[in-house]
Amino acid sequence: MLRPCSVLVLASLAAAAQSPVEVRFGDSPQEYFGSALSSFSDTDGDGREDFAVGVPCDGQRGPLSGSVKVYRGWPSCERLNLLGSGAGDLFGSALARIPDLDCDGVDELLVGAPGNSLKGRGSGEAILFSGADARILLRLWGEAAGDEFGAALCAVGDLNGDGLSEIAVAAPGARANGRDSGRVRVYDPLDARILYTFSGDARGERFGTSLAGPGDMDGDGLPEIAVGAACPRLDRPGYARIFSGADASVLYTFGGRRTWELFGSSLAAVGDVDGDGRGDLLVGAPASRPGEATADGAMGHACGAATLFSGGSGTPVFLFESQESEDRLGTQVAAGPDLDGDGIGDLLVSASQRLRPRAGYVDAYSSRSGAHLATWTGLDAGDQFGASIATLRSSAGSGIAILVGAPTDGFRGSGVGSVALIEIQR
Length: 426
Hints:
Oligomer: single chain
Shape: globular
Largest sheet: 5 strands, antiparallel
Structural class: mainly beta
Number of strands: 30
Strand content: 35-45%
Helix content: under 10%
């Protein structure tokens, strides 16, 4: 069933023809279909990328066991249905596309199950599946109860010169330096060897809330690893730390401006968008408060923001802010397609409006000028449209598409969830 989604396209995109939006729905109440999204390899040769959808509260193998559905192209059809191992796994909470490891021409899919309890309740698991046939290529587990291993995942890039990408897996609940200080490990996916281990500085930081592989930021030819620590229970703004892929040294630590910003809740590798030859990073802070306090001392609460940082200098390039309380702009950030035709991919920033009687939205910004290009909004209050976002590429004509998850969409029942596919033709 197709349901239209509200789409507002600003003047700078007037030349882009917007096709109808395809919407995929979950199957059951409270399964939160669309909690995570990832693009995937084009497996049917139609020139359009496939995509994966996380359904962490699916109950096919017990309550909250979770699942992941992989769809072909668009219009989409289901190709794979991957299931969690058992009750409470929350399989599908995080997804990452990993460049082809088994030389079959299809990328692989890394899936996080932070609720898995093999090594203690909520110790967590990450499973690497063959993108071609869903064979399990690798299984990794957390070390202790409460680790939440697999809550965030990413492909890092080739660190050891074997031509294959390494993978990073976060355990934000790990007690590396106190409860919920957090830990991130970087693995060689061929033999599960741990290359690097990074840990949060102090209790409650939730280091590993988010991960990204921003590419080479220091010019040594090796990619770096970016880790977000939102510090949700601390009177700190949160931070994002960039580690060298060569020796694990700290290249940058980007911090928020004020306490309780949840800076680092979301990260996105966006490529070299400022033209300095280094990878850049987009960081979300969904609880940020804009500007200065008013005369009566009041400031908007959880308006949200996102900041683009230059990989070459480590300095902010653009700051995108909301002025509306509880918008939560920066809920998710992503590298977008080239929407304004300047030859450089643009930036996507979502605002889930989780605690507002609104649906949520996704903004697009020019990576070259910082100009606001477009806004896509959900239909119904409480949908959390924008809780996940991804971009699909196409070699079929000039089509590109944006995926937006709304995991609490109640159109087919409370918390069933949905994913909207918005195609843009040039």
